[in-house]
Amino acid sequence: MAFRLGQLGIPWRRKNSRDDDPYWAFFINTPPADVANSVPELIRSAPEGNIFPTKAELHTPEITSSYVKEMARYLGADLVGIARLNSKDEQFPFAVVCAARADYDPRTSPGVGGQVPVQNGLFTTFVLSAWIRELGFRATATPHARAEQLAAAAGLGTLDADGRLVTRELGTRVHVANVILTDLPLAPDG
Length: 190
Known about the structure:
about 190 residues, alpha+beta, two-stranded antiparallel ribbon, 5 helices
């Protein structure tokens, strides 16, 4: 016996229901009432940890760079690059730059949902810098004033007229996470 339903009308497939959903707008645009309860704030306030006293034996800088990039992707980074820093201005020779996909710009979307790429980037850079310190090298994840310029120098993309990073993979929907400054011997990109 055949069962016929005819034409089904599925109400949620009409259009993007996020446009007129007040709960979604609240999730994206309203910052938490107590910022101390937000995950990004918890990660920012966590102590860095110590550097392992014995340096690990490493392969070539190219192979070490591939390991660092693979670890960053495993931890959630969508894009990873390495830039050489100016030795006169910086105390570290290299910067590891991670970027995450951002469906909403975190600068204009202060809600929990708008801050998801910030949270992902903080997690990635926090754990990756801890892993580098476990190898016996200095590493600190820090918000860098020139993060987007370093991302462009690391070969992740180019800068538009406003100084924002534009990538081939994600376009302008990208958030550059904290920059990891390190003395781990790496091969720069870009």
